[in-house]
Amino acid sequence: MINKIIKYILIVLFATLMVFEFMDGHIGNGIMLILIIGLVVLLLFKHEINLLAFLQIRRSKFDSAKKILGFVKHPEQMPAKQQAYYYFLNGLVESQGQNIGASEKLFKKALNVGLNMDHDKAMAYLNLAGVAMTRRRKREALTYLSQVKKFDKAKLLNDQVRMLKGQMGKI
Questions:
Q1: pTM, whole model, 2 decimals?
Q2: 171-162-90 Cα angle (round to 5)
Q3: Which fold has domain 47-168?
Q4: pLDDT tens digits, residue range 5-31?
Q5: In angstroms, what CA-CA distances link 153 with 12, 73, 81, 119, 156?
Q6: Per-residue pLDDT tens digits for 32-49
């Protein structure tokens, strides 16, 4: 994690360099510096480790994502929203690694810390419902599925909810 002070220093440095490039007539260099400043500003609000792990998870490289998330030594020092997504991404990695107990704890921690987006909350509750179902806790799984319906406003997880309910009938 790059320190915020270093990020601010980089923004000021690149901004002054950008002004000089525009004054000298090097428009292309100035535009490139604007893009670099935009990247540094993005990293002020999003943790770079979370972004890299998210990209690895999208590529289904869960071992690599786990390794990247391992670089964070003190997640409690992150801002609350970034800390929640750190736990959420760790929960996704652990659920793919068949470590159900750890993934349940991480998803609950992510929800307690405060996930930002409703579809992420719905996904966390869906995973918690799956964990509860594998542990044969039907009532708890049903409460999690009701939370999934509450937060899934675009109805993207309807198929998964139906599938879990169908599997619950067998329990």
A1: 0.81
A2: 85
A3: 1.25.40
A4: 888 999 999 999 999 999 999 999 999
A5: 41, 35, 21, 8, 8
A6: 999 999 998 888 878 888
